[in-house]
Design brief:
heterodimer; A: mainly alpha; Four Helix Bundle (Hemerythrin (Met), subunit A); 2 strands; about 70% helix; B: mainly alpha; 15 helices; globular
Chain lengths: ~240, ~600
């Protein structure tokens, strides 16, 4: 009970090796992730939480699909388009996927130009990303319309298990909402970039905080996440 | 504290000063405030208000159970509505909101030495969406058909069928919508709490110097951010089942001789989603309580917490384990026996870190300079209650013991002790402890002791007999028990006795509320640090702390939060912002 020690905050001892070192790094002074800003940390943690939401949706869909005693409609046939006299399976989905993945590319370029403070190119690339995102949502609307005219409803469809329509509308709808929100925020951030808010330090309308070019990257994190989720939906819903 | 800062002893600031939004009017200062402390009070007041509704509902249930047939207005339907709303409000809208939204908002920025949460605007939105969720919930009382009566677990298929109150009316729709809103609002606040703890600490405040209160709230928030998604998804799917007629959770089913439109859904899927949220939820409520009680015990026993690092790792271990035990709520739902074996094993393993915590609390008290203040009384009561409730948890965690006890009053007794009474005792202790910081005045001591003894003894008199009733086989969730052969003369008397005790304990809470309001103006002046505590929130230049918390300069942390009764020090506590050169420390190296 007498071995008291004098502690200095400045002690810069070498970090211990292995797990102890990892724990010490994480627990270190002021911030756990040294080069990560508050906004970026918040976006990452939000995306982690959102991953659990999409994970639960997909797991529920898989449970429904595996436990149903009625045959599951064949996605290759349901999602086929008749082009030039022949049925091409999954062609629309392929185009949608291509569009969305491309938008990830333009987003990455926007982030790059953002950090070079190239306002014009950043804004244009962000708006291009938004346009690709809007195209994706538009094609999704087309797909929904087509299926609805063919008789697919949330509570049933002509070909088999009722859960096919339920899961389809719920999961693509929830993902489409994410894309739509992303498009809206892309336009908002692009406008700020265009106007030079991040150079002049103009405070945000609601938050009265100054933004930085890093906001483009944070926006990008969300966008890439939405793309990544789509890849999983594509794999599990359309290709299975 | 000594006002000298040795220049070389301080690491360079990694976190720049924040821009705070400074309010210009009464509205932005007290109503649409972005100050975490105001948001905390708003959260707490709203949670207390809705909690009172749930308290009254419990009285109505006890009226029916204790004196069956006496009160005509409590129909079986109404009874189910009371039970559902009581459970849901207490677990989500009171305990979760009060611990994370209330204590989290107030204590995190102050304890880690931050000016505010990292995104105050989002934090403000979090409260207003929470309020909206509460209003939607309350509106179901006035909707046609009344609130839902599906039980707080909302199990389908019964939750959305016409035989259940609110099942084919507005009740269940409003309940699910309210939960979705709550989750959205909570996520906004929760992200703030997590990022503030990870990235917004003041200089010198390493994670291993955080007060355990912050550790508890932080871990609980991380868990909530990962567990609430499952509830969110379950709510969305059930809402679709109810409104659009999908069949996620609805099997083919005949109701009143009529085949329903649903087909092929899985009610068990809902149970998995619900309990994947529901079990972590128990610890979302318990971990902040663990953290707070550690600080209360250390402060009021004037002794450093025993095994600080073990306490931190135990919190993390409990948080991680609680994600792999959910199906112990489903032993009677029908499950592969090997799953039952797995979940029983993980459940019992949780007893290890929780036992470590209990031992460390007791060892902290051991040979301490114990001051039997009201926060300390509540903290001691918590330990006892938590051990009691935890032990019955070991009964229920075993499949073979759970099966006969499931759906009896034993279960009611268990979870009320462990996640009802125990966390509430900590909330009371915490309010008595931090009220002087929030208002600048102490709560009244006499009323406080009255409140403590009636609540503590009363809660035992309510819930201990329930164990006995449960072992006799008295089922839970039954509106009417009189004619059952199980209900012997003694069981009926016991039920009436429990009811009377429930009213007395409820009355004590009114005294507490009176104390809360009365002391704002008439309480004894508290000063800045009435408990002579070490953590940063007691070192603010003003009490109550102003917007921005710490005046011009943020404090610099030189030591852990538990330097009480350090040999060789002038006083029996050394605040965290006293440089190490001027006082020894007991911080583990």
């Amino acid at each position: 009970m007498t071995d008291t020690t004098v502690t200095h905050t400045s002690q810069m001892e070498p970090r211990p090796a292995g797990w102890r070192g990892i724990a010490a790094d994480w627990a270190s002074d002021q911030r756990a992730f040294k080069n990560v800003s508050w906004g970026k940390a918040m976006m990452w943690i939000f995306l982690l939480s959102d991953t659990f939401i999409f994970g639960c949706f997909l797991l529920s869909y898989m449970t429904a699909r595996m436990s149903t005693r009625v045959p599951w409609p064949n996605p290759s046939e349901v999602f086929a388009l008749r082009i030039g006299g022949s049925e091409i399976p999954l062609i629309l989905i392929a185009i949608m996927t291509f569009v969305l993945i491309s938008s990830s590319g333009t987003m990455a370029m926007a982030v790059n130009f953002g950090y070079r403070h190239d306002r014009r190119k950043t804004a244009i690339l962000m708006l291009l990303t938004a346009a690709l995102g809007a195209t994706f949502v538009g094609m999704q609307a087309f797909e929904w319309t087509k299926l609805i005219t063919e008789g697919v409803r949330p509570w049933g469809n002509p070909w088999g298990a009722a859960q096919f329509g339920s899961c389809f509308f719920m999961i693509t709808g929830f993902h489409g909402t994410h894309v739509t929100i992303g498009v809206i925020f892309l336009i908002i951030v692009a406008r700020k970039v265009w106007r030079g808010d991040f150079d002049t330090g103009r405070p945000g309308f609601f938050t009265s905080r100054r933004g930085r070019y890093e906001n483009v990257e944070i926006m990008g994190l969300y966008w890439h996440f939405v793309d990544l989720v789509w890849v999983f939906i594509f794999a599990f819903f359309y290709l299975w | 504290m000594v006002d000298v800062t040795p220049a070389d002893a301080v690491p360079p600031a990694e976190v720049g000063e924040v821009e705070l939004y400074h309010p210009h009017s009464w509205w932005t200062k007290y109503v649409f405030s972005q100050d975490a402390k105001v948001i905390a009070v708003q959260y707490s007041a709203t949670a207390t208000a809705i909690g009172l509704v749930a308290l009254v509902l419990s009285w109505l249930m006890r009226l029916q159970l204790g004196f069956p047939g006496t009160f005509d207005f409590i129909t079986p339907e109404a009874y189910y509505q009371f039970i559902t709303m009581h459970g849901m409000i207490m677990v989500i809208y009171l305990l979760t909101a009060l611990f994370l939204g209330g204590f989290g908002n107030y204590l995190i920025p102050l304890m880690v030495g931050a000016r505010d949460m990292v995104f105050p605007y989002v934090n403000m939105l979090s409260y207003w969406i929470y309020l909206l969720a509460v209003l939607v919930l309350v509106s179901s009382f006035f909707a046609p058909g009344g609130p839902t009566g599906a039980g707080w677990t909302l199990y389908p298929p019964q939750a959305i069928m016409s035989g259940t109150p609110g099942g084919q009316d507005w009740g269940i729709i409003l309940m699910l919508s309210s939960l979705i809103l709550f989750i959205v609002g909570f996520t906004m606040g929760g992200l703030n709490y997590v990022v503030t703890v990870l990235q917004g600490r003041t200089r010198g405040m390493t994670l291993m110097r955080l007060p355990l209160t912050v550790w508890g709230i932080f871990t609980a928030t991380v868990m909530a951010l990962l567990a609430f998604p499952a509830l969110f998804v379950a709510c969305v799917m059930m809402l679709l089942d109810r409104v659009l007629g999908t069949s996620f959770f609805m099997p083919a089913i005949v109701e009143m001789g009529e085949q329903l439109q649903h087909n092929g859904g899985s009610p068990i899927l809902f149970q998995h989603l619900f309990w994947f949220f529901g079990h972590p939820e128990v610890y979302i409520v318990a971990l902040p309580a663990f953290g707070i009680v550690s600080d209360l015990i250390s402060t009021h026993a004037r002794k450093n917490i025993f095994g600080y690092r073990m306490m931190v790792w135990a919190i993390i271990a409990i948080g991680a384990l609680s994600f792999v035990v959910w199906a112990h709520h489903m032993y009677v739902s029908g499950m592969n026996p090997y799953f039952g074996f797995f979940f029983a094993t993980t459940t019992l393993i949780i007893a290890v870190p929780t036992a470590i915590k209990v031992y460390n609390w007791v060892l902290t008290l051991w040979r301490g300079d114990i001051h039997l203040t009201i926060p300390m009384l509540f903290a001691l009561a918590f330990i006892v209650t938590f051990v009691n409730g935890g032990l019955t948890g070991l009964f229920l965690g075993n499949v073979v013991v759970d099966v006969p006890l499931s759906d009896t009053m034993f279960v009611v007794a268990h979870f009320h002790m462990v996640m009802g009474v125990a966390p509430i005792l900590v909330i009371f202790g915490a309010i008595y402890h931090w009220y002087p910081k929030v208002t600048g005045r102490m709560l009244d001591e006499t009323l406080g002791r009255f409140h403590f003894w009636v609540t503590f003894v009363g809660a035992y008199l309510i819930f201990f007999p329930m164990h006995y009733l449960g072992l006799m086989g008295v089922p839970r969730r039954y509106a009417e028990l009189t004619d059952m052969t199980i209900m012997t003369e003694s069981a009926r008397h016991l039920n009436s006795f429990i009811s009377i005790m429930a009213f007395i304990v409820g009355f004590a809470q009114m005294v507490f509320l009176f104390n809360l309001i009365w002391s704002i103006r008439h309480g004894r002046e508290a000063g800045g640090n009435p408990w002579r505590a070490t953590t940063l929130e007691w070192q603010t230049p003003q009490t109550p702390p102003e917007h921005g918390n710490f005046g011009k300069e943020l404090p610099i942390v030189y030591r852990w939060a538990y330097d009480y009764s350090v040999p060789g020090a002038k006083e029996d506590f050394i605040p965290q912002n006293v440089p190490g050169d001027f006082a020894p420390s007991r911080e583990p190296a």
